[in-house]
Amino acid sequence: MSTSRPAPRTRSGVGPGRTGPAVRRGVVAALLASVVAASLSTAAAVPTRPATVATSAATWVLPVAGAHVLRAFDAPPAPWAAGHRGVDLTATTGGPVASPADGVVAFAGPVAGRRVLTIRHAAGLTTSLEPVRADVTVGTHVRAGTPVGTVEGGPHCGGTPCVHWGVRTAPDSYLDPMLLIDPGGPVVLLPVG
């Protein structure tokens, strides 16, 4: 006879080490608030640039045109915990990959056997794209939608060609990249319950 007990549940019904949708939304809202605050303070420090929020939907595009999400973002409950720190987008091996926003190429090369392309954007955001063979070099300034490389095949999506797109706000903090893409209309708040 087993004497083990089931894991305790929180008020939301989610067990320890996992986050529910409400917690994830709260984390994303907090990250976006910090990004907005950082971009406003950066814009204030550089008087020649207009005070705009770098995360406005008009400045971000999908790195793979017409792609669909194969695997969604799943924020880890702690920086060291398991999660999916980006989205996997449908792609075609050899197909073009574009910069999702204006920025500067920070890294282009292999990491753990996969080619990775990293681009630094305004407001402290950094994009990572993999597996991508870069057509640009470190230090290159790129614009949103500019081709920066091609999709390489690999095992990341179980043999299905894909591009993993991650966006960091700090070395260990990630946000859902799809929140940066214009959803195609106004946000409508619905009553809870």
Automatic annotation (TrEMBL):
Residues 1-20 are annotated as: Disordered. GO terms for molecular function: metalloendopeptidase activity. Residues 83-170 form the M23ase beta-sheet core domain. It comes from the Bacteria. Keywords: Signal. Signal peptide: none annotated. InterPro entries: Cell_wall_metabolism_enzyme (IPR050570), Dup_hybrid_motif (IPR011055), M23ase_b-sheet_dom (IPR016047). This is Peptidase M23. It comes from Cellulomonas gilvus (strain ATCC 13127 / NRRL B-14078).
